[in-house]
Amino acid sequence: MTLIAGIGFAYPWLLLGLLALPILWLLLRAVPPAPRRQAFPAVTLLLGLGDDESLSDRTPWWLLLLRMLALAAAIIGLAGPVLNPETRQTGSGPLLVVMDATWAGAEGWEETREQIALRLEEAGRAGRTVALMRLSDPQELQFRAATDWLQQLPGLNPQPWQPSADQIEQALAHFAKAAEQFETHWFSDALDYPGRDRLITALEARGAVSVFEHPGPVYALAPPAIADGALELTAERSLAGPAEELPLQARGRDPGGTLRSLARATLRFEDGESRATVRLALPSELRARITRFELSGLRSAGAVALADDGLRRREVALIASDSEDEGLALLSPLHYLRQALLPSADLLEGALSDLMPANPDVIILADVARLPPAQEEAMIEWVEAGGLLVRFAGPRLAASDTARSEEEPLMPVRLRLGGRSIGGAMSWGEPKTLAPFVEGSPFVGLVAPDEVTVTAQVVAQPDPTLAARSIATLADGTPLVTRKPLGQGQVVLFHVTANAEWSSLPLSGLFVQMLERLAVSSSTGTPEASSLEGTVWRPVSVLDGFGRALDAGTLPGVQGPALVTDPAGPALRPGLYDSGSQTLARNVLRPGDSLTAATWPSSVTVAGYSTAQERPLAGLLLGLAVGLLALDILATLLVSGQLSQLRRRTALLPLIGLLAVAAMAVTPERTSAQEAGANDPIALAAELTLAHVLTGNAEVDRIARAGLQGLSDTLFFRTSIEPSDPVGVDLERDELAFFPLLYWPVTADQRLPSPAAYDRLNAYLRSGGMILFDTRDADMAAVGATSPEARRLQQLALALDIPPLEPLPSDHVLTRTFYLLQDFPGRHPRGPLWVEAAPADAQQTEGIPFRNLNDGVTPVVIGGNDWASAWAVDANGRPLLPIGRGFAGERQRELSRRFGVNLVMHVLTGNYKSDQVHVPALLERLGQ
Amino acid sequence: MNQAAASSAPGAADLRHRSEAEASALPPLLVQAQMLAGSVLLGEHGRRRAGTGDDFWQYRPLQQGDSRRMIDHRRSARGDVQFVREREWQIAQTVHLWTDLGASMRFSSSPDLPQKIDRARLLALATSVLMLRGGERVGLTGGKLPPRSGKAQVLRLAEALSAEDEADYAPPEHRAMVPHARALFISDFLGPFDELQLALTKAADRGVRGVLLQVLDPSEESFPFSGRTRFHSITGGLVHETLKASALRDRYLDRLAERRDALETLCRAAGWRLGLHHTGDSAQSALMWLYHALERSAA
Fold first, then answer.
1. Do A57 and B243 touch (CB under 8 A)?
2. Given this model, what pLDDT does residue A67 score?
3. Predicted-complex ipTM score
4. Between chains, do B107 and A41 touch, taking CB under 8 Å as contact?
5. Looking at residue A873, what DSSP letter applies?
6. Closest approach of chain A CAs to the CA of B257, in angstroms?
7. A32 to chain B, minimum CA–CA distance in Å?
8. Which residue of A has its CA nearest to B220?
9. Are A186 and A211 in contact (CB under 8 A)?
10. Angular region, A149: left φ>0, alpha ψ -120 to 50, beta rest
11. How far from A684 is each of A365, A726, A739, CA to CA, in Å?
C-alpha cells in the first residue's frame, strides 16, 4: 500500500490516469456541445444567414470542470484510497500469532479478536503462512493459510487460567519443533506470569517479536472472606493507577428462585493502590443465598468470586440431657461444642420440641439416652429428610438400655452395657490414642495428635456392619466414631463425651476439624490445605474465561489440598466443587494473590491496539463521481435549454431519485432511521391514558379500543379525569407502567404471554396497576370454568400474582367511588363481578353501612359483562353497538358507563370514598 | 399555449375580465367620425354639429321649410320669435379588428413573460371595450363577427379571439371590411410581407384607415442567444441551425430593422400608423398608444 498525503492507495498506478485529465479538457473543448434547441418565431428573419466561422462555441468552463471532477473522483476512487491505512511494515515468512488467551483478556476479547483478524488479513494479503498459539492451551504449531485461521478465530475463547508451568514447557517444546524462523505477534493480556521471560527468549531466537497489549488495567476479585462477621471482598488491579471506583454486586437466587442482584457495594481503589477492599454486612439469611460476587460490567472469570459454604452459617441445635448442672460450666457437655461451633455456626439451644420446627441443619444430642416417642418420630423424619444428627456418649447413655438388644434408628450401632474405662486408677492399660484415619472415612487426611487420649467410652456390639460404620477408631481398633445413613441424612455417634471427661478429644484442634469434616460446622474463609488432606472434590460447575458458569459435566475430581494451593489450570478449573455435603469454591485468584502488569524487555516492540480503523474511501469517491455525473446531466440539459421542458414533464424526478439512490448505495454511510414507536412513552406519561390488551383478534381489539374511547369521553365530560386517546398494549413489547387501568378482553384463542411479559404484568400489579378481565360471556355462563373464555382466563391468570377473590360485596368501595351503584352491567346486564377479597377481620361499625375495609386498590376485577361493547362509541361519539331494548337498554348503557367511571375513579383515588368523612352525605343520599 | 385551445369558454371569460380591468383605467374612447357619409348610423356621441340625436345642441330661429312640429314652444313662448330646438348629430364609427392568432404568436422567451398572443388578445379586446363603451361598432375582419355595438359584443369578441390558428404565420384577414371604417391589426408581422401588403392595399382601396401594432417578445428584439443553437419555428416548420448564435446577432438585428422600415413605408403609403409593443412592457402603455393613435388617425 502506497501512502500519499496520509491516504493509502491500493492501486497507486491508477492515479496516473489523472494525467489524462488535461488531454480530456482539450478534447472536450474541441468537440462542440450538442445543439441547443430554441423555439424562435423570428426564425424567418434568420433564414439564409450563414455562419462566419466553422468553430462552434465551446462547452462552458464550469461544465468542463464538473466533468473533470467527476472523472478525477472516479479515478482516485478506483485507485483504492484508504484513510488511516495500516502502515506497519509487512514482514515476510511465516508468522506466529501468540495469544495469552487468559481470563485477563476476556474483557477486551472482541477487540483482541478483531486485531488478530486484522493481522491475519494482512498476512493473507502478503501470502504468509500463519500459526496460532494459545499459551493457556498450547497446541502443535501449524503454519497454514491465514484465511484458515480467520475462519477459526470466532471459535477461540479465553481460558479461565494463566499459562501454567506445564503449559509453558509445552509451548516451548512446540516452538522448538518449528522448522524455520518466524515472526511473532504476541497478543498479551498485560498480566505477568512466571515463565513468560523464557517464552520471550525462545521466541526472540526465532525472529522478531512484537507485542500487542490490551490497554488498561486488569481487575480481579479475590475470594470472599469473613472478618468480624461481615463479608470482606478484595479486588486487585494490575496497574496502580489513579483512584477509581468499581461497582460490585452479589448475586443469588431470591426466595422466588429467580437469579437477581442481592447486594451492591462499591470498591474504591485509592490513588496508587492496587488493592481495594469493601465490607458487606448482610443478614445471614441473605448471605446464605449469595452464589457469586461480580465486578459489575466486567466480563471475565477474574471478576467473579464464587461463594461456597464458607459464607453459609449452619444452624446447629445443641441439646443436652435435661438435668443440667448449671454451676459447672467447664463440665457442661455442651461447653466445648459451643466453643468449637460458635465462630462458624448459628447455635440454637433449648428444648427439642421447640427446636424441631426451626428445622436446623444439624442437631447435636450430648449424652441424651432416649427421646420421648413423639419426638423420636419427628427426629427420624427429620433425619430421613436430610438432617444430620450427631450424638455424644456419656454416663447417661452408658447407663441406659438404649440400643442394647436391637439397633435403633437413631443410633448407628448397638452398644454394650456400661462401656469401658481405660487407663484409669481402677483399670489396666494406658489411655488409648487414636488410630490413623483409614481410607473411606470422612476424616481421612486429618492427623490425630498424640495428646488426644481416650479414657472411657461406650463400646459397640460387634456386628457385621460395624466395620463399615466406624469412621474413627482407637489404636486398638475399638470404634470411636460410628456413622450410619438414615434416609437422606445420617446419624453419627461419638463414643465419648462432648466434654473432656472421657477423653481429651474436645480439647484438641482435631475436634473442630472433625466437626468441619462432618459438615457440622463450615469453615470460615478458605480452609487450610492440610485440613483437606485426603479428600476428593467433584466439580459441580466451572467458570469459562468470561466468568460464565458452565456445567462441569464429566470433569475429573480434584484432590483437596490441590484445590486450595495449586494455581488454576486445565486440571483445576475455577468453579464450584463439592465433597459429600460440603461445597467449596475455587476462584481464579487464591487468597493473597496479586496481579502484576507484564513488563517487556526492550528488544521487543510493544504496541497498543491501533484505534483508528482503516477506512476505505473508494466507495465515497465513486459515489461522489456518480453524484457529479448526475449533476452533469442536469447541467447539460440546462446548457442545451431542455431543462425547462424536462421540468414540465416529471420524467426528471424519477431519474434524479434513481441517481440519488445509486449515490447513496455506493457511499458506505448508513442512515439509521430509528423507527418511532407508536406508543410514545412521553406522550403516554404526560396524560392519563386508558389501555387495553391486544388480544390478536381484530374485532375484539377494535371494540375494546372503541369502548375505552367511549369511557374516556364519558370521563372527560363528567369528571375531572381527562384521559387522552386510549391505546392498545402489546404485552410482549410495551411498558405497562404508564397505564392505571388495563382492560383485558379474554378470547378463547388468545396466546399466553411470555414469562418476560408475565414478569412485567406482575410488576405492574404489584406497583398499583389494575387489570379488568372481561370474559364477555355473562349471557352464557357465570365466571367459572364453564365457557372457553373463562377457561382461558384461568390459564392466563395462573402465572399472575392475584390475591384471593370474592364476588363484589355490596359495601365495596367500587359501588360508590363516583356514582352509587349496585349493578355493574355491560352489554350483559348482571354477570357477577369478582374483586380482591376483603380481609376476614373487617369490622362493621355501628351505624355505618360500610365495613372499614382494607387499603389499596383491588389489583384485578374479573367479570364477563362485555363492558367495552356497552362503552363503545364510533368516530362521531355515538354508541357503536345496540344494548338491550329501547329505553331500558339506554339505561343499561348509562349504568355501564357509570361503572366505568367508578372503576377509573377507584383506580385513581383508591379507597378515598371509604373515608368516614363522606359518610353523612352518603347516608343522606341513601335515605338512611 | 395549449390551455387556451383546451377550454375556450373559461379562457374567454378570463380574457374578458382582464380586458375589462385594463379598459376601466381609461376614459371612453371617442372615435371622431371622419366621414359623415357612408356608414351613418345613430351613435351615442355628438358630432359637434346639429343633427339627429338625443342631446340638446342649440336653439335657432324657425326658418323657411321647417315643420311646425319642430317649434320648441317652451322657448318660443318667452318672446315673439319662434325657435327650433336642435339636437347634436350623433353617429357611430365602425372599427375592424384583426389579431394574429397564428402559432408564431404563441411564444414567450421566459415563463415570466406572457405569450405574444395573450398580449395581442388583451390589447385587442381592451381597445374594443373602450370603443364599445364609446358607442362604436366593433367587429372582426373577415365576416365571422360583423361589427356591432353593445356590451354583448365584448363577449362575442372575446370568444372569437380565444380561437387559435394552426398556421405558423397567419396572413392578415382583409375581407369584409366596411368601407371608410377604422381598422386595428395586431400581429408580430414576422410572416410573409406580401400578404400584409395585399391586405393594406385592399384596405386603402376601401378607404379604411387604421393602426398596425407589432407585438414582439423581448428576445426577438435582443437576440440573447449564443453557442450552437438550432432555431425552429413554433410548429417546427422552419428550422435554422447555427454553430455560433452570438455571431448572428448583428445581422439579425439588421434584418429586423429592415422589416420595420418596410412596415413603416407601407403604413405611410396606406395612411396607416405603425406601433411597436414588447411583451415585456406594460399593456397599459400600449393601450394608451392605441387610444391616441386611433384618435389621431381619425382626425
1. yes
2. 84
3. 0.73
4. yes
5. B
6. 10
7. 8
8. A42
9. yes
10. alpha
11. 65, 9, 8
